[in-house]
Batch of 4 targets.
Target 1
Amino acid sequence: MTSTIPQTARAAVIAAFDQDLVLKDDQPVIRPSELAPGQCLVKIDYAGVCHSDLHVKEGGWGPVKFPRVGGHEGIGRVVAIGEHTSGSQVKIGDRVGLKWIANACLRRMRDVPNRQRTVVGYVTSHGYKVDGTFADYAVSYVDYVTPIPESLDSAAATPLLCARPMDLQGMTIYKALKETNAKVGNWVVIPGAGGGLGHLGRS
């Protein structure tokens, strides 16, 4: 399968803050031999757009190392896995999703008080700290990609990748509800309740 991986492919790249994305058809694609242990290369079939992508482009999340491929909602298939990767839950050919969290230091996260666990200082994020899903190929980590059932439509599943609580996602809706001190029986308004984050508020 690795023989079909091109040298270059398409990508939407953030070149600088407050500039339009640059559409490239010659973005270098990492070679399978260059993947670190624990990394995987995913051929992206479908990508979503989140308002956080705009925050990154406008500098709202802080410094970004340019150029940066944007995006943190994507579904595709694993086409390569880094040599010496052990204990991988995914294999080449698996359909997976890439989300905001590309990788995290869980040892350091354990030392953070519960109230502060929505901070992302110990997290490597797609489309922000590492290249994201606005590309034909994206690098992620086998421990953090999300298996996507074949029966699930990509258009329906992709927005949910912004809000998968088991992978520390959904922090936006969780923190918002927590800070309101809402009690059982209280009414709350959730704008965009059909999207990736909003649906969690209805759960």
Note: The two ends are 40 Å apart (CA to CA).
Target 2
Amino acid sequence: MAAKRAHLAVDYNQLNSFSSVVLYDTAHTCTRKTYKDKFNVERIIYRRKARNDFEYLIRWEGWTLDQSTWEPTEHLTPELLRSYEKPLKPNPGRLEEASRQFYSGVLSALRAKSVAPFYVSFDLDLWRYVSSNRGCNSQHKGYKLYSIEDLAFLKLPEHWWNYLNDHGQGQAVKPPLKIKPILSWTPATQMFKDGKLIVRQRMPLEKLCVDILRRPCDTANLFQ
């Protein structure tokens, strides 16, 4: 699927040096006429409100993640806009890797003494697919509540929701899980390139904030 990239009379290298996000591609190989062309969309990462419309953060096919750009609705085809609300079935390899990340986060949380929420790296378009038509709204903004069954689309080990130590004692997740998708950015840093100090492009960070209740468990009450 293809979409337009914006072309405005702006020095994007200078603009990005002051911006908190990557607005437009600043690769040295690009020319002004490049922005008039159409590019293939690898995936839509995120959507944000912009005045009376939306802007979409696009990962472009063949371009690095730090060259993702915010694009207005008018630059996307109807098919792409529909794919944001109803993502297509992902590559199995991506789903397996995301499932491993999720399971690792839950397991670490159950082993730890802290009861604070934890974060899991998770592509946000993949999460929209996994969580589509699942869960219910939480009283906390941005969060939804999910049962164990709601997460069946993830490729998780059997009994992933509990941890037992060598003595057969541990902790288990007490449903529901409270989950919020989050988009953040790497810190602003500088680097030397061709003898000049320049601002390094900031990378989007896609993750889930997961908040769970825990209950003590052992081999006798594992399924309570």
Note: The radius of gyration is 21 Å.
Target 3
Amino acid sequence: MSLALHLPRLQRLGFLCETVRPEALSRPELPVFSSELAAELGIPDSVFVQADTVAQLSGSAARYDPAPIATVYSGHQFGVYVPQLGDGRAMLLGDLAAPDGSRWEIQLKGSGKTPFSRFADGRAVLRSTIREYLASEAMHALGIPTTRALAITVSPDPVYREQPETAAVLTRAAPSFLRFGHFEYFYHRRQHQHLAPLADYLIAEHYPECRTAENPHLALFETVTRRTAALIAQWQAVGFCHGVMNTDNMSLLGLTIDYGPYGFLDGFNRHHVCNHSDAGGRYAYKEQPYVAQWNLLKLGSAFLPLAAEAELIAVIESFVGHYQTGYLNAMRQKLGLSHSQPDDAELVHDLLDVLQQAEADYTLFFRRLAEMPAEHQAPLPDSLLRLFPHAERLIHWSGRYKRRLRQENLPPAERKRQMDAVNPLYVPRNYLLEQAIAQARDHGDFDGVRRLKACWQDPFTERTEYADLADTPPDWAADICISCSS
């Protein structure tokens, strides 16, 4: 028994994809899967121990029906247009109908070469596969829109990067994996006849509310812009750095997609660059909102045959307001503030200055902030002060914050409950990922991966058995280098 899949809806377009054949791995195994996602998709856990499923999800099945496909796209990578990209190591197996009526695309990542692999081998390594598996499900648990990860299959076959590594295949799921780069490809190749059908497909399958607009294609671009702004606001609020915000890594559904050298902020640093390959800091934490708008500008160019230039520019300019509103609302929630005040943005900005100077742990600061009393003379909690080598600026800022809390007039216990519900205690820190990866890679032991998955499935509830996963990082964590190589 294996996953029952339907013909991919994308094939209706006729111009976007090519049929592909996965390349088998020797002696594949399926050590981990997401039972939470499986339940959403209506897949019993027992399916994942079946030999047919292991073969199907490792790219090793004797027959695939329907035939897998790979799509073509282009994109701006680190600001430079690359005319030919595409699913170089991803294959869409088919669509799956979930019990709630939703339809999901099921995709293998690392299952071999496609017509769009260029000079690459189409494979993925265990290291990057574990990182994406854990991050996808953790981001979902944090309430941030994301593609999902269903399972990992592994093989003793070597994959050659800087050194030989273990081969792995990730089974991903999403309502759609369509990207900004799909529109860019047909626009820059002057195949403009494909742009309207692609936009119409998106509207029919994912944005039906745009159908009745005066210009449905402009309404589609507006909706993608709003979703992108909302997504980036959530990234910034939780301290997530994507690392490779190329236009081909931007989802048309406003999902976090393609987890490579990502990272969550440890000590707060606006200039943090999580990708060792990003020498110029193009995708630094503080740059992410600006890059997102720049990427929308490139997508807007591809919409020029579908809408008036002035209207598209107005939509792109509206990104700033959408983002700022979403970000400030998210930060108010993190601060336990229910009502809007004119100086809230200044309060947030000044707090980040305090965190920046002290390089205080971003996640733990907001979690422990819920313990701060609102009374003017009350001392700051020791748990909070321990994050600061020198607390003078924090104490000064806290006076303003306490006044703001008193305006809210919320009982301390209720404020703490509300703040704990939006400020995670557990996030995917790179040093924890590295430990779990080493355990799996060097010893074939996936217990560390399973433990992190179980913890990050509920990032807001404190549990004593995961106390070690809520610590500040050890000193050696600062030396971890994550790059685009995977």
Note: DSSP finds 15 helices and twelve strands in the chain.
Target 4
Amino acid sequence: MAPKAKKSGSKKKKITKADRLKQIQEEEEKRQKEEEEARVKYEKEEMERLEIQRIENEKLRKLEAKDLERRNEELEELYLLEACFPEAEKLKRDDRFLSQWKHYIQCDGTPDPSIAQEINTFITLWKEETNETLEEVIEKSKLVLNLIEKLKLILLETPPYDLQGKNIIQYQGSILELQELLHLKFNRATEILLRQASTLADLDSGNMEKVIRDENVTLYIWANLKKNPRHRSIRFSETQTGFEIPRILATSDIALRLLHTHYDHVTPLSPVLTPSQEHISVVTDFVKEEAKSVQAAVSKDLQEENKQQENESNSIHEEETKTEEQGDVKEQMCPVQEEPETTKYEMEMKLLSETVSAAQELLLENAFEKPDFLEEDEVDLCQFTTLGGVYHLDILELPPQCKPMKGWIIVEILKEGLQKYTYPPETTEDLETENVFPPIEVMLEVHENVIFFENPMVARWDAEGKHWKTDGISNVSYKSKERLITFNLETFCPVTLIQDAHINMPYQSWELIPLDVNKVLLTVTTVFTELQIQIKENLCMLASIKVNNKKHSSILEEKWMTPVSFIIALKKAGLNIFPTGHSHLYVVINHKHPSVEVKAYRQIALLSSAFAFCWSKWNTACDSKKVIFQVREHLLKEEPIQNPNWTLLMFSGDRAQSLKINESSDAFSEVLKEETEFHSTLYHMVKDFASQEAMREVRHSNCQFVDSVCHMLLSTRLLSYS
């Protein structure tokens, strides 16, 4: 057996209990020392932090105190600058009166639609005119449509507080009468044409076909004279418009009419924006208070003046009798009854200023809930909008044809006039309706001046319920390149194409840049389009439009219009970037308090002649009582800058401040930018870093220009919908 190997190395020394206690004690002392050092360090850092915070708070307190100290002064200066809004409204009123006067002295025979007597006389006289051809009706329709547009503009352009209820009823009543009469005239003219269908028959088919094109209407008429059961496919020459009719119609005495009105006289009129009783009482109270204060001030000034005159008179005429003195006083007191012209003007402008402010706030009022009275398949006109006009589809009974006899033309005139052919008939006598009376295939050309960002939907007019519905329509297909829509319709009736009214909301970004003296460019970018709008004085123009990043031509380009007319035109073209009171119920928005928005838009408009503004991503990070956007000075003489430095401003309506963060910062913070102060207005905020030339440009801005920019900002609501 081999011997045991010796263990290499010596044995480890055994740690005694005393050593272990000593080691534990050392570790405890070390831990306590580290904790003490950490505590001291923390306390030191905390003291430093608190000191820094105290200094910052003290600094903020001083800045806030400074802001409060000069608040009244800044607000007074802003009030003087914002006098441009009532001044612009006064100019608009003067323009309306001047327009009425020019129309009066022109004496061209056309009525003033705002005067009930004139428009009623026009309607009565036109009703009495008979035997008008389609060409004559179409020509007269231009005047009628112009009168309707004028009435609609009066309702939209007149401030709500200046519109009386009886006037609204009068104007809307006149609009409806003109619309109904115009359609009646088209029906009568169609009847006159169809009486002559046999004389206008096509040599090849033996049927009559006629197409009349105009800037406001396109009329397609087909009369079935041959009643050939094989002739079921109808295509109007040089168009893509047509029908596929069932056999029963191909063998009937009928005429098909498609009256495409490029306007919409079917949809009920939109309610006129009117202030609530609460708003009216606020404005009324303000007017009363202003009247009292102005009257008191005037009386006080005049009484002091009279007292001074009386004292002077007494010193000069001490020897005059008491009766003469009383007579003098009476004569001297007479001027108290007269108000100086300047004071009258000031009071008028104050009243106008309050009216304009209230009207601007009314534009931003939001509805509380969606309409809850919709029927099944009914189109919600708060969510959708009709585009491209209305296609009036009618199957008509062919009237008796005129016959030549011994040099005379004899025609039987039916007392009941033009009659519609009922399809499918109300009683089918146990016939299989689907087989005998199948849906009619309709092919329509989409209006060339309308933009659809998605495939349009088709809606039919329900005459009984007085609304648009989507039932009774099937097999809808749309060819965007050919701008042709095809669908099956169970029965002929007015149809229209609809699109989501909020398809371009919310916006992705926006920018407002000065172009020239009293001229700016507003760019609004959405998911589908980029719109560039120029604004100068009291006019707006569509400068350019891109659809899916490609240049798109529009009939509206290079056409200057008033802001209200411009907004109407853009909506009709499918370029809707103008939210309504219900829009927030259909779009996820960055809600901002209306009073903050109004103040922001007014002050941005004031500065727009010398400063550029644009969207900020941080606007969604702050609460609803604050708005955030970027601003920079932009003088026309300067060369364009590749990467301009923008200042980030936060505004709460009562306070403006420059933020320390910028667009590329990682996190949101409301910390004030170094070496900047609080101000009560945006005007005084930008004044801190702006040049004297820029501020001079602002002070000399045209009042109509500022008002137009403000109206466009209020109408687009960029701060809430982007």
Note: Residues 315-338 have pLDDT under 50 and may be disordered.
